[in-house]
């Protein structure tokens, strides 16, 4: 874990995780305006989170959370989540939403997101957080 560094990364770096992400049922897309925060181990991408911020409406959409299986249970996802939270607060976001898996819902709830509804035909849950 000593070599793990977190930084903004380009989608081209994230695409390398494609097979692993699909295997875990996470959708990998690069929507317009997406900001990717990656965890790297000696320049190898081992985890990512994504944010899409609408500066006009002060809303954010959290997308594509993922950590490679061999790097889980080391606090990498928690740190990426915290960095993303800090970033949206810095940008003045008032509301954030996400569709999250059952694997990540506890982290979302821990950081103040409230489950709203289950996404049709999936195990994903829509969550929402209002910043005050």
Question: In summary, what is this structure?
Answer:
With 132 residues, this protein is of the alpha+beta class. It has 4 helices and 7 strands. The chain has helices at 11-14, 18-23, 76-90, 105-110; strands at residues 4-9, 34-41, 44-54, 59-67, 95-100, 114-118, 125-130.
Notes on the protein architecture:
With 132 residues, the protein is of the alpha+beta class. The chain has a single domain (4-97), classed as Aminopeptidase, CATH 3.40.630.30. Helix content is 23%, strand content 39%. The protein contains four helices and seven strands. It has a seven-stranded mixed β-sheet. The longest helix is centred in the middle third of the chain and has 15 residues, at 76-90.
Task: Output the keywords.
alpha+beta; Aminopeptidase; 7-stranded mixed beta sheet; 4 helices; globular
SSE topology sketch:
Elements: E1 4-9, H1 11-14, H2 18-23, E2 34-41, E3 44-54, E4 59-67, H3 76-90, E5 95-100, H4 105-110, E6 114-118, E7 125-130
Parallel strand pairs: 4-5
Antiparallel strand pairs: 1-2, 2-3, 3-4, 5-7, 6-7
């Amino acid at each position: 874990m000593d070599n793990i560094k977190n930084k903004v990364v380009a989608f081209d770096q994230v695409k390398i995780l494609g097979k692993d992400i699909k295997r875990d049922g996470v959708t990998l897309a690069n929507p317009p305006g997406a900001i990717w925060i990656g965890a790297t181990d000696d320049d190898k991408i081992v985890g990512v989170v994504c944010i899409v911020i609408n500066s006009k409406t002060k809303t954010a959409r959290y997308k594509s959370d993922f950590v490679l299986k061999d790097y889980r249970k080391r606090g990498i996802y928690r740190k990426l989540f915290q960095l993303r939270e800090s970033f949206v607060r810095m940008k003045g976001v008032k509301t954030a939403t996400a569709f999250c898996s059952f694997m990540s819902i506890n982290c979302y709830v821990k950081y103040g997101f409230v489950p709203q509804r289950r996404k049709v035909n999936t195990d994903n849950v829509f969550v929402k957080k209002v910043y005050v």
